[in-house]
Design a protein that fits this description.
This protein is α/β, with parallel strands linked by helices. The chain contains 17 helices and 17 strands. Bound molecules: calcium ion. Calcium ion binds next to loops. Keywords: Calcium, Disulfide bond, Hydrolase, Metal-binding, Serine esterase, Signal.
């Protein structure tokens, strides 16, 4: 069968053939583990894993226990539901039954804490899923591992090698080894550790390993593909912070400078979010041919914040000249000294997520962009702490980029040569929501284009596909777009058959789990366009087009 016929079959397969959820994947077995399996789980506690990779990936297990099947409380059920979407391995709404499994906890040397949930032998799908931590990492989360075990994956989460909460960078102060664990090493050594435990626990062989995460957790998959091309068969990278130093010191820094006045008070608060969002939607929603509350490609939008300026006869909400300028700066790219774009501005359509990232959620909280920029600057950007007493606004990326090279060399994942990963048979799905207000999708498009330039278009499409879902926010599920998509099933299909995903089915669910609409997302550079007839809430009424846009 030639490639074209294969591609056609695969689109049809994705759009019409298979049900969106393969419920068979979700553990429904009520079989209780036998005593032998329970004992095998507990004995993992006493395993000697000190010589993994000649000691480089040495691991100690501090707890190994059999967890009987149980019903989750409502809060845990909700967070597990959310995390399953963040992983690209969704579970149906209302799944509150955690299957029996073996829980293993411990740390990889020196200080990387992890947890690994192992489905019982009869239901294990012979796959390992590592959830790479996001933000500045710093905690071990139960939710991704619970979500993964519900899909019968042996699933691990970890803290990146340190303890922290939110955008707290103090752990990195004057400590380059901790930063190296955070940047690339942690995901490698915990994967080595997990594979050793899997080999000891199961009667069957491990078939596929996956790494999935959002933001810094998306960076992790691309970094792993670069540095450790044999660690993972499949990568899911959502909203990735690929050029991590620029993310913090250009993107977040410039957004923080735009929105905060000289006393670090925000020029706009969360009461402006809907106002600006509605104005942008009014100007641009229809430009993709469908008024649906989604902007399929913000490069088609020409919204002018000046239209929101207060005038003498304005009666409703409006913006002062200074506020208008702030909004213009937020949409505008950042430039280097030669006038080249070094970071795209936030896209039109990202406004629903501006509460929090730009407009403080409460008077005593600053925008998240501020914390990411200033904590990175203080504790991660330079080998020794700097700027602790100085004004963060004095920092200029263009002036100091030379001094940043030591951190850039190990922190950033934007090198375009992924030949090793491709040659090892690895496959990668990169997703970046157009409504992401933390990291603009433009940065990920620029990186993907750089990979294409370096490796060739067909060669790149063969192992790495980029999807840009409209309305998808940074790492949450609260945006206007569809956030339920089974990226991991697409990867498994790709690995099993060699047929790349020519479409990713997405669906939008209400809080009760009812499906509000379905929509295909086609790989970059294609866009899903409404065909003009039929129900626009149904995926079959969309087709792929290739828009002709200049990036940014
Ligand atoms: Ca639209």
């Amino acid at each position: 069968m030639n490639q074209m016929r294969k591609a056609k079959r695969s689109i049809k397969h994705l759009l019409l053939g298979i049900p969106f959820f393969s419920f068979a994947l979700v553990a429904t077995s009520t079989l209780a583990a036998n005593n032998e399996e329970i004992t095998a789980c507990k004995l993992l506690r006493f395993g000697d894993f000190s010589q993994l990779e000649q000691g480089n990936a040495a691991m100690s297990i501090t707890n190994a226990e059999y967890v009987p099947s149980q019903t989750l409380d409502a809060d845990t059920e909700l967070w597990t539901y959310k995390y399953s979407r963040l992983l690209g391995a969704p579970i149906p709404k209302g799944t509150n039954s955690l299957p029996e499994h073996c829980l293993v906890e411990g740390y990889a040397a020196p200080t990387i804490r992890f947890q690994l949930r192992l489905p019982m032998d009869q239901v294990w799908n012979q796959r390992f899923l590592l959830n790479a931590c996001m933000g500045f990492c710093g905690e071990v989360s139960n939710y991704p591992t619970m979500a993964g075990v519900m899909r019968n994956y042996a699933t691990m989460s970890h803290d990146g090698g340190h303890t922290a909460a939110g955008f707290d960078g103090l752990w990195a102060k004057n400590n380059v080894p901790l930063r190296e664990d955070f940047a690339y090493r942690a995901n490698h050594v915990v994967a080595v550790a997990a594979k050793a435990v899997i080999e000891r626990f199961y009667s069957k062989q491990l078939k596929y390993s996956f790494i999935s995460g959002c933001s810094k957790g998306g960076h992790a998959g691309i970094m792993a593909a670069k540095r450790y091309p044999n660690d993972f068969d499949g990568v899911i990278a959502r909203g990735p912070t690929i050029n991590y130093t620029k993310v913090n010191l250009v993107n977040c820094m410039d957004n923080a400078k735009a929105i905060l006045d000289e006393n670090d008070n925000a020029l706009l608060d969360a009461s402006y979010t809907d106002f600006i969002s509605q104005a942008v939607m009014q100007a641009c929603d229809h430009k993709d041919g469908l008024v649906d509350g989604l902007i399929s490609d913000p490069r088609r939008c020409d919204f002018d914040p000046q239209t929101l300026l207060c005038s003498h006869n304005t009666t409703g909400k409006c913006l002062t000249p200074r506020q208008v300028n702030a909004i213009k700066e937020i949409y505008a790219p950042s430039y280097d000294q030669q006038g080249n774009i070094i970071y795209g501005g936030l896209p039109y359509g990202s406004e629903p997520e501006w509460t929090g990232w730009l407009f403080p959620e409460a008077p005593f909280i600053k925008p998240y962009h501020y914390y990411a920029a200033t904590e990175y600057l203080k504790y991660l950007a330079f080998p020794r702490e700097r700027y602790n007493q100085g004004n963060w606004r004095d920092f200029s990326y263009n002036n100091e980029v030379g001094e940043l090279s030591p951190i850039l060399s190990f922190m950033d994942a934007d090198h375009p040569d992924l030949t090793g990963f491709k040659n090892s048979g690895g496959k990668m799905i990169v997703l970046h929501g157009w409504s992401d207000a933390a990291i603009p999708a433009y940065a990920t498009i620029d990186w993907y284009e750089s990979v294409i330039n370096y490796m060739g278009k067909d060669n790149t499409y063969d192992f790495a596909r980029l999807f840009l879902p409209p309305g998808l926010v940074h790492c949450g599920i609260e945006g206007p777009g569809a956030e339920t998509f089974d990226a991991i099933a697409a990867l498994v299909h790709w690995l099993d058959t060699g047929i790349a995903p020519d479409a990713l089915m997405t669906q939008k669910e209400d809080p009760q789990g009812n499906i509000l609409f379905t929509r295909p997302v086609y790989p970059y550079p294609q866009e899903a366009q409404y065909i003009g007839t039929g129900d626009p809430k149904k995926a079959e009424n969309f087709r792929p087009i290739v828009p002709n846009f200049k990036n940014n």
